[in-house]
């Protein structure tokens, strides 16, 4: 399941400057290859929107604005701001009337998905969404295998909270068994809506 | 329908610095009185979340980050960023499985709600949400009357696109007839969920 990047430009959005989030990554091998998991999800979201299939957006990075400069005849410039921890997951929107809410996570780990990828408040958010009957999941990207899985929020939450497990990561085999593989391609690049359909309509 | 601000602090969140959006406002009378429509909606959202009634958040202000400084031993500082136009409405989330999507707008106008309050892309977003069977609306606050209405997205869109009307604003009487009044109080301050219930279950 290789991710291919043809040069077709039909759905290639205008490049916005990389957010600092990307710069934080210790391992840049993925972006060095001109690929970025989050960007690909956003491109897929644009495709879905353009086809009238779903309306799903990534939330902007929350910043605490401290100082703004208003030059005459020019746009306001934020001159001092700090990154804030997001209190929710990164992506949400609507698909056939259903509330869709998910987080995208990557791992270089070959055999398991480390739970340190989550903050407690993200798990709390997922639980709250599930209580409201929202569709909550995580898109997990195993970089080495170039495999993507849609993992239901219920599974993530129960693993995270399980006292018996007390593990710091979910074995990949568990994700294969409890998640749904996500096909990658040209348009959309990451077809997670198809995986939602499989999930909802039964495996 | 006066908006009262008792000093009870139970649901008073930590004051975050006012975003610049507020500073843009030509008329600051509302914030001068220590009141802010958007803040009150956010406080109401916190109340709803704390009670397990709904999970609805305001999206962060989108900023294009150009420069970031990384001082040693301190948090990263954004030293240059520009405000971007949001491509969606400000608030979204989930309520009893339903996707909720809305914008909050204020007017000082006594007899009508000016449509210049909307950008074309916001209307497009509302249409896209409606096509996905999402719950789309606008909370309109008439400052002078201190009245708030939940106005269904379908009504806003049809008025905006109507060639016959070709008006630049919606008369208040039309909003009273086609919208749903929103009660204000202590907790929640702006009880728009009750208005959604009335809307969905029939007037």
TrEMBL record, chains A, B:
<keyword id="KW-0963">Cytoplasm</keyword>
<comment type="similarity">
    <text>Belongs to the RecU family.</text>
</comment>
<keyword id="KW-0460">Magnesium</keyword>
<dbReference type="GO" id="GO:0006310">
    <property type="term" value="P:DNA recombination"/>
</dbReference>
<feature type="binding site">
    <location>
        <position position="88"/>
    </location>
    <ligand>
        <name>Mg(2+)</name>
    </ligand>
</feature>
<keyword id="KW-0227">DNA damage</keyword>
<dbReference type="InterPro" id="IPR011856">
    <property type="entry name" value="tRNA_endonuc-like_dom_sf"/>
</dbReference>
<feature type="binding site">
    <location>
        <position position="122"/>
    </location>
    <ligand>
        <name>Mg(2+)</name>
    </ligand>
</feature>
<keyword id="KW-0255">Endonuclease</keyword>
<dbReference type="GO" id="GO:0007059">
    <property type="term" value="P:chromosome segregation"/>
</dbReference>
<keyword id="KW-0540">Nuclease</keyword>
<keyword id="KW-0479">Metal-binding</keyword>
<dbReference type="GO" id="GO:0000287">
    <property type="term" value="F:magnesium ion binding"/>
</dbReference>
<dbReference type="InterPro" id="IPR011335">
    <property type="entry name" value="Restrct_endonuc-II-like"/>
</dbReference>
<dbReference type="GO" id="GO:0003676">
    <property type="term" value="F:nucleic acid binding"/>
</dbReference>
<feature type="site" description="Transition state stabilizer">
    <location>
        <position position="105"/>
    </location>
</feature>
<dbReference type="GO" id="GO:0005737">
    <property type="term" value="C:cytoplasm"/>
</dbReference>
<comment type="function">
    <text>Endonuclease that resolves Holliday junction intermediates in genetic recombination. Cleaves mobile four-strand junctions by introducing symmetrical nicks in paired strands. Promotes annealing of linear ssDNA with homologous dsDNA. Required for DNA repair, homologous recombination and chromosome segregation.</text>
</comment>
<keyword id="KW-0234">DNA repair</keyword>
<keyword id="KW-0378">Hydrolase</keyword>
<feature type="binding site">
    <location>
        <position position="103"/>
    </location>
    <ligand>
        <name>Mg(2+)</name>
    </ligand>
</feature>
<dbReference type="Pfam" id="PF03838">
    <property type="entry name" value="RecU"/>
</dbReference>
<dbReference type="GO" id="GO:0008821">
    <property type="term" value="F:crossover junction DNA endonuclease activity"/>
</dbReference>
<protein>
    <recommendedName>
        <fullName>Holliday junction resolvase RecU</fullName>
        <ecNumber>3.1.21.10</ecNumber>
    </recommendedName>
</protein>
<dbReference type="InterPro" id="IPR004612">
    <property type="entry name" value="Resolv_RecU"/>
</dbReference>
<dbReference type="GO" id="GO:0006281">
    <property type="term" value="P:DNA repair"/>
</dbReference>
<keyword id="KW-0233">DNA recombination</keyword>
<feature type="binding site">
    <location>
        <position position="90"/>
    </location>
    <ligand>
        <name>Mg(2+)</name>
    </ligand>
</feature>
